[in-house]
Amino acid sequence: MIHVTLVEWYGLGALLLVCMLAVWRGGVPERRTAIVVALCWVASVIVDNDGSRGVQWAILSVDVLLGVWLVIQALTCNRFWLMVAAGAQILILLTHVGFALTPDMMQEGFFSAYYIWSYVVLLALALGSFLARYQVPS
Known about the structure:
With about 140 residues, the protein is mainly α.
């Protein structure tokens, strides 16, 4: 059974707003990234093992895929916001690694860092969507 917490509902609301903004105002990189980020959010909810304690390897795998996507986009597109989003996603991955290496780490600390960096990815996408009209084609 899929269990979505209140924090995840807030994240879903933010995700939907940013994705709608990307579709409305963004260029091709913003729209593609919005789709990938939304798919990764859905995948994370599906593979979440109901908030059990410990490393969630399936969610880490989804985050790795998103990280690879963002890094490739940052290296191939002329959008600064993609570098910010890729950097934040790398910090999410490092948060996973830190938790895996230090299981005594407080679960709340892990989730706080995880959600903060996730919102940085969304904020970068939102900023990129606003600025897409002013982007010089490469």
